């Protein structure tokens, strides 16, 4: 199976952050990683491969080398994507139709969600004798659709239209007088539980269309950021770290600011690094010393120059799909990259035989941010923001270069096998 076939298979099995973590967990188990619970004591060993989860929607995996630990080589991506979350009271019943009650999650391109069969997935909390159990559910088939208003009633729609999330983006579910089961009953049947035993839910709409590879491109839902998450993970499990702890992070809630217990702004990574340090006998001071020769890759897909709108590119920085890994720069530090972290990553790409390209926003346009700066507020290390160039970021269906997945896998494998040492005049990537 080609690397992009594996990627698209992984995306299909990851309609939500909860499912993306489960997909990553399965890959880790297949490669000899053992689960640790945050609520248990950790007994870590040299050459050990481990992972832990938080909230079921974030995951950190790490491998401890046999040799002396000289630092931490970390990389992070995010598991969530823009969507619509279904509210606790799911159905809005009118005289004619039943609609699903939703609110927007993240900043998606509204028009890309219109007139498209949508499915639903997430987690449900099911009542048990003294508490509850958590089950993942994926309806897989279409269960809703957000209909456009016909052009006869909105003749200016092709001249530009501002969609209202509470009016235009409410999904149609079923007829009001039909005998179709309720949404809660559908979810319960799919999960094999009683609807009355469901205490609460975290369910999101998603695009169930399968990704495809065509003409040197790939198009799929949720390329941002599952393409980076997948590529980093493939490189991580292939790598053979010798003198650094390799750390793979998959965070939730990047699309809404990361300010949650499982987001990049949480103590999740800091807690894990502290427990690793304690287990391998590093004092608090020694851990701080090791962080000075540690590194972080913040990987989140990047903007490719648009074929129809090249005017939005900076005249001297315009990444293209299939052109290699994108290194992102921003003077206002919306990206963490500076000259030091860019130099480290460029050297790593050269060692891996992988092309890279530079991105900066046009000076009068502001781009998006990433989890890099948010993560370094908790764990302060040299960090580079990188990504894979794509079109239509935050669309319900996105497009990227078919060659770039393999480029990032190769770069990640090289990266996780290295460590960094300070020299009298700079840094060495060994």
Distance between the termini: 32 Å
In CATH, what is the class of the largest domain? Alpha Beta
Strand content: 25-35%
Number of domains: 2
How does CATH name the architecture of the largest domain? Answer: 3-Layer(aba) Sandwich
CATH superfamily of the largest domain: Zn peptidases
Structural class: alpha/beta
Helices, by number, come to 9
**Major sheet summary line:** 9 strands, mixed
Broad shape: globular
Roughly how much helix do the residues carry, as a percent range? 10-25%
Order the strands across the largest sheet as they lie in space. Answer: 1-2-3-13-4-14-18-16-17
CATH topology of the largest domain: Aminopeptidase
CA radius of gyration is: 22 Å
Overall residue-averaged pLDDT value: 95
Subunit arrangement of the protein: single chain
Give the strand tally. 22
Poorly predicted tracts of residues: none
Notes on the structure:
With 430 residues, this protein is an alpha/beta fold. It has nine helices and 22 strands. The strands form four sheets. The protein has a nine-stranded mixed sheet with strand order 1-2-3-13-4-14-18-16-17, sandwiched between helices. A hairpin with a 6-residue loop joins strand 19 and strand 20 (398-401). The mean pLDDT is 95.
């Amino acid at each position: 199976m080609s690397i992009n076939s594996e990627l698209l298979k992984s995306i299909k099995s990851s309609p939500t952050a909860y499912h993306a973590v489960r997909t990553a967990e399965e890959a880790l188990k297949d490669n000899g990683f053992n689960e640790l619970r945050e609520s248990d004591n950790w007994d870590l060993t040299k050459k050990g491969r481990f992972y832990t989860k938080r909230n079921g929607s974030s995951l950190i995996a790490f491998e401890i080398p046999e040799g002396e630990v000289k630092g931490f080589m970390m990389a992070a991506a995010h598991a969530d994507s823009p969507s619509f979350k279904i509210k606790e009271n799911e159905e809005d019943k009118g005289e004619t139709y039943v609609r699903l009650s939703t609110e927007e999650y993240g900043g998606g391109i509204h028009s890309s969600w219109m007139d498209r069969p949508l499915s639903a997935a997430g987690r449900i909390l099911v009542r048990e004798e003294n508490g509850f159990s958590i089950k993942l559910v994926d309806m897989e088939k279409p269960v809703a659709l957000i209909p456009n208003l016909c052009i006869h009633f909105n003749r200016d729609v092709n001249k530009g239209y501002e969609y209202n999330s509470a009016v235009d983006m409410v999904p149609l579910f079923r007829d009001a007088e039909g005998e179709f089961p309720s949404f809660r009953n559908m979810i319960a049947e799919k999960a094999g539980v009683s609807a009355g035993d469901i205490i609460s839910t975290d369910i999101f709409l998603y695009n169930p269309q399968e990704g495809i590879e065509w003409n040197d491109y790939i198009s799929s839902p949720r390329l941002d950021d599952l393409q980076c998450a997948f590529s980093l993970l493939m490189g991580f499990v292939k790598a053979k770290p010798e003198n650094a702890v390799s750390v793979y992070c998959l965070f939730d809630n990047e699309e809404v600011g990361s300010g949650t217990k499982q987001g990049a702004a949480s103590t999740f990574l800091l807690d894990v690094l502290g427990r690793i340090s304690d287990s391998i006998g590093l004092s608090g001071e020694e851990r701080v010393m090791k962080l000075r020769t540690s590194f972080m890759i913040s990987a989140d897909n990047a903007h490719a120059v648009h074929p129809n709108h090249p005017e939005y590119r900076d005249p001297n920085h315009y990444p293209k799909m299939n052109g290699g890994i994108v290194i992102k720069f921003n003077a206002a530090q919306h990206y963490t990259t500076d000259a030091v972290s860019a130099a480290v990553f460029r050297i790593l790409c050269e060692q891996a035989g992988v092309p890279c390209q530079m991105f900066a926003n046009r000076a009068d346009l502001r781009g998006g941010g990433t989890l890099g700066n948010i993560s370094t507020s908790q764990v302060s290390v040299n960090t580079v923001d990188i990504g894979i160039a794509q079109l239509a970021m935050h669309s319900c269906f996105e497009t990227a270069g078919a060659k770039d997945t393999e480029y990032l896998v190769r770069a990640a494998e090289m990266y996780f096998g290295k460590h960094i040492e300070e020299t009298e005049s700079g840094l060495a990537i060994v």
